[in-house]
Each structure stands twice: as C-alpha cells, then as structure tokens.
User: What shape does this take?
Amino acid sequence: MPGTPILRIESLHAKVADEEPEILKGVDLELPLGEVHAIMGPNASGKSTLAKVLTGHPGYQTTAGTVTFEGRSLLEMEPHERARAGLFLAFQYPVEIPGVSIANFLRTAMQSRLAEGEELDLFDFQDLLLDRMQLLGVDPSFAERPVNDGFSGGEKKRNEILQMAVLKPKLALLDETDSGLDIDALKVVAHGVNTLRREDPTMSVLLITHYQRMLDYITPDVVHVMVDGRIVRSGGPEVAIWLEEEGYSSWREAEEKAVAER
Amino acid sequence: MPNNAVVERLDLDQNKYDFRTVDQPVFRTEPGLSEEVVRAISTHKEEPEWMLDFRLKAYRIYLKKPMPTWGSDLSDLENVLDQIYYYVRPQDRMMNSWDDVPESIKDTFQKLGIPEAEQKVLAGVGAQYESEMVYHSLKKEWDDKGVIFDSIEDGLRKHPELFRKHFATVIPPADNKFSALNSAVWSGGSFVYIPKGVHLDTPLQAYFRVNQERMGQFERTLIIADEGSRAHYIEGCTAPAYTTESFHSGVIEIVIAKDAHFRYTTIQNWSRNMYNLVTQRALVNAGATMEWLDGNLGSKATMKYPSCYLIGEGAHGSILSIAYAGDGQHQDTGGKVVHAAPRTTSTIVSKSISKGTGRATYRGLCKVYEGSTASRSNVECDALLINETARSDTYPYIEIEERSANVGHEATVSKIGEEQLFYLTSRGMTEEEAMALIVRGFIEPIAKQLPLEYAVELNRLIEMEMEGSVG
Assistant: This one.
C-alpha cells in the first residue's frame, strides 16, 4: 500500500555501549514504502550511528524509543533477523574477509535465509548472481575476488551494491557519509540504487550523506536534516539545496538562537 | 570479540570418530615398557637379528635421553608412558581383501569411509588398527608398474636390501627421544617405493586407527621415490575419546631421488586424550620437490615439525601446515627446512586457529649452510584467535651461513573482530555461520591444496560445530 510506512522511528535515543553521552537524542522519522529519503547533517550529528542502531550493531545501545519495520519491532531483533526481514545496510567502510570470494559470501548469505534443512540450489544461485552482475554491468570475474580484500573505494561500493542486488532488500540503508569525496564510488552507488529501483519501485531507501552532491545522482522524496542527534528539519529536495548554500553552520546558529530565545 | 556461548560451540566435531569397537586382540604386551617388551615385539614379527639389535640399541638411547622441556607440557607424559600398551596385535596376519578382515575391524573402517574412498579415488590403501596394518592393497595397474605399497613389516621381509639401505638413514634413533622410542618399539606403517619415472595419478592412503584404551601406536613409514617419479601419500588418524591418555609417536622417513616429486598429506583428528609426537623428514635430492601438507586438528598435545633436508642442487621443499587448537589443546607445530646445496628453495606457510583455552604454537627452523648459494626461503605464519583466552605463539629460528641466501619471514596474528562479525550478520548470517565463513576463508589457501574429499571434510567439520547450535 503506498503511503504505508515501512519504517517508523519514534523518539529514538541511543549511545555507544558502555559510554555515557547520548548520540541520538530523540529521532523521529517516518519512511513510506517505496520512497527515497535522505538524511543530511554535519559531522558527528549521529547519522552513521542511526544506520548502525537500525541494523543492530552490538557496539551501540538503545536507551529509549521504538523502531518498527513493516509493523514489527525492529530493536528486539538480532542483526541477522533484521537482514532476513529485508533490511540492508550498504557500509561506508566495509571490512575485508580474506579468503572468502564474493560468490561464496553471497551463497552463504542466501543459504542462511532458507529454512533449516533446505538447500540452496547452486545452479539457481549462479544464474541469479550472473543476472545481477549483468544488470549492474559488473564483470563476472568480480565475484571470484575475496570480499573487499585490496579493493579500491569504488570496488568496495560495487561489492555493496552487488550484494544489495542479490539480497533484494525491502529497505536499503546507504551509509554514504563520506562518499561525496569519491566521485567513482558515488556514481557506482547512485547507478546501482537507481537501477534496482527501476526494477522494483517498492524498494525503499534511506540515504545518509554529508554532501549535497550525492543528491545530484539520487533524487530523494524527502530530505531530513539531522543536527546533534535529532531531525531538525524535513522537506523536499529544496532543503538540500538550501543547506548547500547556507551550510550547516548557519543552521546550527539559527538553532542555537532559537534555543536561547526559548 | 564474539560472545562466549557462540565460541563454545566452535569446537571441531569429533563425535563422528568417537566410537569404540569391542574386540579381542590376539596378543598384547603387558602395560609399560621394558627390554622384554622390545624383544617380544621383535619375536612376534619374526625379525632378523639386526633389527632386534637396532631396537635394543634404540631403547637404550631412549632411556638416556631426557624428556624435552620445550614445546608442549609433557610433565604427565612419564605417567602415561608407564601405563600404556606398547604392542597390541589385533589379528593374526595382514589381509589384502576387506572380506578377510575381521568383521568388527572392517566395520570400523567402513564407518570411516575407507573402503568407499579406495574404490573411488585412491591408488592404494593401508589400514592400521592398534599396532598392526590389518589391510593393505594396491591397484593392479600400479603393482604392474613396480610400485611397492606394503606394510613396513612386509617391506622388511620382502625387500630386505632396499629396506636396509634406507631405514633409519633419514631419522636415526638418536635424533630425539621419541624417534628413539619409535625405533625401539615401532610397529605398523607403510613401506613405499615408486620406481623411476612412474607418475601415480591418484593418491596412496594410509589410515591409522587407535581403538583400545591406553594404547601406544608407533607406526614407522619408509618411502623411497625414485628418479623422476611422482606420487602423493595421505595419512589420516582418529581414535575414540577415553578419559585416560593415549600416545602416538610415528617416524616417517622419505627419500626423494633426483627430479622426483612427492607430497605427503596428514590430517590428524586424534581424540583429545592423545599425545601426538611425530618425527617426519624428507631427504630431497637435486631438482626434486617435497611437499608436506600437515593438518593438525585433534589430539591433546601435538609436537610435529615436518622437515625437508635439501641436499641436492635446485631441490625444493614446501611445508603447508594448518593447526586447530580448541579447549585444552596445544598444537606445537611448524616445519624445518635445511638448505645444504646451491639454488635450493623452500616455503613454509603455517596457519593456526586457537579457541577457548587452546594454544597454537608455530615453531620453525630455516637453516642455510654455507655454500648453498643463491638459495631462497620464505616463511609465513598467520594465527587467528577466536576469543580473548585463546593463545598463539611464534618461534621462528633462522640460521644463515650463506651470504647470497635470501630468507624472508612474515607473521600475523588476527582476531575475529566485531566489525567482521557485524558485517556478515547484517547480511543475514548467524554469528555461527559468520564465524565459520571467516575461519574457512582464513584456511582457504591451505584447504584448496587438500584432496577434494578432505577439503570438504574440513569445511564440514568447521561448519557442523557451528551449525549444530542453530535452531
């Protein structure tokens, strides 16, 4: 149903486990099915933390608030259960898994989604993988390389997007905090997301970025501005343009002024 | 670091091998070791006089040599050595057909999949049960080409000259305390001869099974690969788990003639009550290649350093070893290469995984004698720690007398990191599946060298432990 939120975040508070200060200080956000939302914000505003909390990184701790994903309470689920439910995070800095090929990695990920006792058909998987690589214009030899081992920034992104294309999430979180600096990486991500959304317009996207440049390639339905652990403003793409012109510092000054006046 | 409950389930599975066969040996010596025991073994084997003399001399060397104070903790070993059976003869004579092997013993090897593998992928099979080879067979094709694949006893009986020419020349009794012990009480093992220019396209396999409690197994293998020949020998070892300790101490001697190529693969998955102290060494002549592929997964304590003595120009030695040390296990393994001729080359790659209270030690020696001009050696050892309590140490000894030699050493220690686990679980894998994948990736450079059945077995072993906890 269009308009039904796939993700609803309500006054979410979170911090790094075993540390005191809160990083997320009451995040509210609603993402309707099939929409693309961008979260922008200055460094250390909590954007990447939000991505990690949503996917269940064990290094973070939720202190208050709720998150529902397709009506299910997300925070009570293990990271692998969230993934199996259809959540996917494209990592800003994905780690290396030496000795494990991308194909093997994806095969294991696909197998893990099946019911116990059920075996992944290897021919079907091979077909799927080839099909996905074709769709994204990735050379088939890419899948034989060990996961992220010695990859360039662009190759790492290609790998993330390929995984996304194979795993076909309902909601893709893209942590692209720094990608605006690497045009190659940025284009890989944008091309991948746009291709996959053309194929399946119900795939929802939450794009986290620092730079407006990213939004030249992926057009969001809604832009949220995050400052100091809260969403302080939401609106159409014009918000991003405004931010680009004014910069985060002017936003922060306005915020501080408003707080002072309260 | 992963949580403890998950780590607990990471142990390699040994249940598959943990079954006991009830049978009655036809003869066994009294527990413990004495000159009488040594004589009894020799008498039972109807050996020539020189072999009895050899055994008795070795026994005296054994008594004189002190227990090693390095490597694994052997403080309790004296006790164990006083209580074990040194010689257990399971049947009257060795058979060449499984039909003739007693039912209970045949069952054992069937459970281990040996006859099946023999049919499919092997050139020949030897099966040792307790102290004796109970079965030995070589496909006719290879027999016709002059390949000898026999029990060591039959080697001595049927090929006395070839046997005596090489026996104990690679590893003399006085090499170390346990080579002396083995020389005194050896029983079982293979005698292999690959004639000039013969290329075996499928492996020979020997399987070592200890069934009885408080058992000492002392197999002795002698392999001669003649000029330009090529072959692969695989050794597998298992035993049921008892509460008392058992002991396995083999001596493997290999002579590789000019331009021959030999590979020796070991996958030991002994039960966790086994002391496994093995000496294996190859003499590698000019232009020849020796490859040791050494997998140490089981046992309580293993001390094993496969060696290559590169004695001819252009000889090459390679040692790939993989060790898994779970709770209470100490794998003290590595390799030894001695360069004693010009243009000799060697590589050692060692990978270890330790978990819980497990400890994996890499101990290696690279020695380059003066005059071994333009020789090269490269040593790489990588350790993977599954959790905080696991331990890994590296003792690389390098002795170089030759200026023109080029020796490299590289060592890494890594841990399964939270970020790695999170990355994999965020793709839908459970922590167990994620760890299995990381471990598999870590050992991949060595696993891919294994014969397919063993690679599959190794993967399955690693996976099963982790998958067992799911659902």
